[in-house]
Every structure is written in C-alpha cells, then in structure tokens.
Amino acid sequence: MQFSNVAEVLPYYTDDIEYHDPIVDIYGIEQMTGFLYRLLGAGELVTIIDDETLVGDVYSATWIMSGDFLGVPYEAKGISIFKFRAGSSMVYYQRDYYSEGDIMATIPGLDLAVYNFRAYYRCAVDPTFECPFGAAPSGAGIGLEAPDNPRGLLGRENRLHSPEQLRRAQLEVGRQLVEINAENWTAVLPNLAGDYEYHDPIVDIYGPGTMAEFLGRLFAGSSDLYTTVEDETLVDGIYMATWTMSGVFNGAPFTAPGMSIVKFVEGTLQTDYSRDYYTEGDVMLGVPELVDAVTGFRVYYLCAVDPTFVCPF
C-alpha cells in the first residue's frame, strides 16, 4: 500500500477493522482511514513482500520496509498477519510486527540508547560478539555436529510416508522452536540443519552449534521466559506463528507480542532458517535508564500517525 492508493485498499477493510503495531492500536474504519493517510503521508515508504502464506482465512507475510519517516531514513524488517471474514475478501484484523529500534537507531539522541541496549543484549547472549563492556564471550560452541544427511527425513525413523504426516510433523517442530524455554530448548537442536541461521531484531546466528550456545546463554539469564503460540500457519514448508512472550530477562520483567517464521528444508523436519519479530521497546521499558527514550519516541510516533491520540506537543 502507498499513499496514492489508500482509497483503493480501504474498501477491503470491515467497518469494525482492528489494527495493531508495536505502538498504535486502531479500532474501526474511520480511525484506520486517518491512520493510513497519516502514516503513508509522513514519508516515502516502500514495502517489499518476501515470504507469504495463506491458510483458510489467515494471511501472513514477511517484508522489508524502507524509505523515510518524517525526514528520517530507515529500513526495517517486519511480518504481518491479516484475518478475513469467512468466505470473503474483507479484512477484520491486521497486526504488523517490527522493531521500533530500527527507527530509533536513525534518530540522533535516541541512537545511542538503542546501540547500548543492543550491545548489552548481545554481550549476554551472542557467543560471537566482542563485548565492549569488558565481558568476554566464551567463543566456543558445544560441539553439536550437523547431521550427515541434512535433507533426509528426520524423526519418527523416516516413517513420514504422506504429505499430511509431514505437514503435521513440521507444524509440531515449528511450534516447538517458537515455544522453547529453559526446560525444553535442547529438544529442538536435532532439527536444526547444518546451514541453519537465526535472526531477531538484534542477533544474527549462523550454525546449529552457535545457536545452541545462544539459547543456553539466553535461558541462563531468563529461566522464567515463556512463549505461547496463538495463531499459526504452515504452507509448503514455511511455518508462521504469532505469540506472546513473558518473563524476566536479566532481572527486567516484560511481556511482548511477536511473530516468527520457520523454513524447513524441502521434504524434511529440518529447519535451515528462522526469524523472530518483536519490538525491542517492550524489553527496553524494563530498563529504568531507557524508559524515557522509548516513551518519548512512542509519543513522537503517535503524534504523527494516530488520529485518536491527544498530542502533548
């Protein structure tokens, strides 16, 4: 959608459309109309779809948005879910997931807060990161070997004879990878392909051994961190799910909604790619020194795009 074709898209929303992103909550077609014209009129934004799935009346897509917002250039990766009225092309629910940190990082005065938070997080969990605060990473994996036949059918002793059996098994593995916690994270490791890669708004992980150490560090500092899947789809080996994560990370309590994509090697239960989408702001709010930066940016954003927000400026 672009500013020039908002009028063409609006008829596909129901009168009671509900929309959410990391900052804005919109209810009803009148609010949605005002929001879209404000958002897309605030800068030159171009969104390119990457992967997409449609199961029943639920559409999900990953995307990259680039351009400028109120004169600030940025690029952000995101994911969206749309829900249609049964048997129609009318959308009654939409949620976009991206990290506001990608925008904050381009704004002088907020960029340092984002940089420090990302560095602090990577110091805690990323085994490949050289921590600028003096805490050295261990630098060693745990010796997890890639399977000899990464394209072979794994699990259930290769007895997945039908596409439906494979679909159900991939659905289970995808959900397991999203819902991992301190008690069960090691169970998913055999399903990571030798060329596996993982991404979130802060961390880029390559290889199952590095992923194992990343998860070990993450849950060592977040033993009470739990994720619950809500909506999920699986099409042609691409699993997407919305979820809510809650718990404590290094002493800071938080709750954050998010969405993930998991890609399977064709015809197998092995995944070679997964990405989690969430907003860093929800986690940063648990750090007292960062609260003003996050709330200040959110007010700035709401003033620009939310027709219902009473701007204090």
Major pleated sheet:
6 strands, mixed
CATH topology of the largest domain: Nuclear Transport Factor 2, Chain: A
Percent of residues in beta strands?
Answer: 25-35%
Mean pLDDT: 87
Alpha-beta content class: alpha+beta
> How large is the radius of gyration?
20 Å
* Low confidence ranges: 136-158
CA-to-CA gap between the ends? 29 Å
CATH architecture of the largest domain: Roll
Helical content band: 25-40%
Encode the helix/strand succession as letters. HEEHEEEEHHHEEHEEEEHH
Enumerate the strands of the largest sheet in spatial order, edge to edge or round the barrel: 2-1-6-5-4-3
Shape: globular
With helices defined by DSSP (H or I, 4 residues minimum), what is the helix count?
8
Number of domains: 2
Q: In CATH's first tier, which class of the largest domain applies?
A: Alpha Beta
Query: How many beta strands in the DSSP annotation?
Result: 12
